[in-house]
Amino acid sequence: MSELHLSGVTVSRGAGPVVSDVDLTLRQGEILALVGPNGAGKTSLLESISGVIGHSGGDIAIDGESIAKWKRVQRSRAGIAHIEQGRAIFPSLTVRENLLLTAKTDAAVQEVLASFPELQKRIDSQAVLLSGGEQQMVVLARAFASRPRFLLIDEMSLGLAPVVFMRLLPLIQQFAESGVGVLLVEQFTHLALGIANDAMVVSSGRVSHAQAPAAALRDDEAMLRQAYLGG
Ligand SMILES: Nc1ncnc2c1ncn2[C@@H]1O[C@H](COP(=O)(O)OP(=O)(O)OP(=O)(O)O)[C@@H](O)[C@H]1O
Q1: Which CATH number applies to 3-85+148-229?
Q2: Residue ranges of domains in the chain
Q3: Which chain regions cross the lipid bilayer (predicted)?
């Protein structure tokens, strides 16, 4: 099993660093919840891992090999997938066509659908006609079909009711159980901590609670308050 490791990573945008000196280890088969208030730098950190933006300090490595100089496409080929904020579907394409973008063959689409039975019924519907929750299932299924080793998920629940998002959680768990390392950024902190192995808190661009078993954070009200509010 592989490990994605960040050591002392700093990400800068415009005037200066937005997140500094982050250490974390993402292991295949595990979920690491990254929580923190708005503007803490979570999105920027994920973007620096997948290569959307560069990092200005520290190192990012897979199994000890630095990927710091790799472009986004190389990181994607190495198995880093990134579900960015917002519903990244192609609305005018059908669900099948959306899945074929990563699944490549009909047989591969069928294989993915086995894990997403709710989508089976909507396979020939235009994605725009799906509910918000179903659209996010398409996004997850597409990521699933690309067979990543590491999956970065940035606030999939935006615009969804908690009850709708809760239907996505077993799918994310299934991802991890199949051997994917999932880095989960999520506004519904309690829900994220409920499925995570490990958790960490970023606040005002700094790690305020280092990576540790998620159970410790679940029971720490003061820490949770900080995770929500940055206070
Ligand atoms: N494209 C950009 N150019 C300049 N600054 C940016 C850019 N995107 C984000 N920032 C700034 O970087 C800081 C961190 O933002 P980031 O989106 O990474 O945090 P976040 O924790 O993901 O917050 P949110 O939950 O609101 O997305 C913020 O101060 C934000 O204003």
Answers
A1: 3.40.50.300
A2: 3-85+148-229
A3: none
- The number of the ligand 1 atom at minimal distance from the alpha carbon of 205 is 14
CA distance 8 to 174: 30
- How high is the pLDDT of residue 230? 60
6-20 pLDDT, tens digit each: 999 999 998 899 999
Element (H, E) at 122: none
Question: By C-alpha distance, which of 76, 149, 137 is closest to 112?
Answer: 137
Tell me, what amino acid is at 106? D
Here the tokens at position 224 are 């949770």
- Ligand 1 pocket test: which of 11, 18, 83 has the largest number of ligand atoms within 8 Å of its C-beta? 18
ipTM, 2 decimals? 0.93
Residue 223 CA, chain-centre distance (Å), reads 22
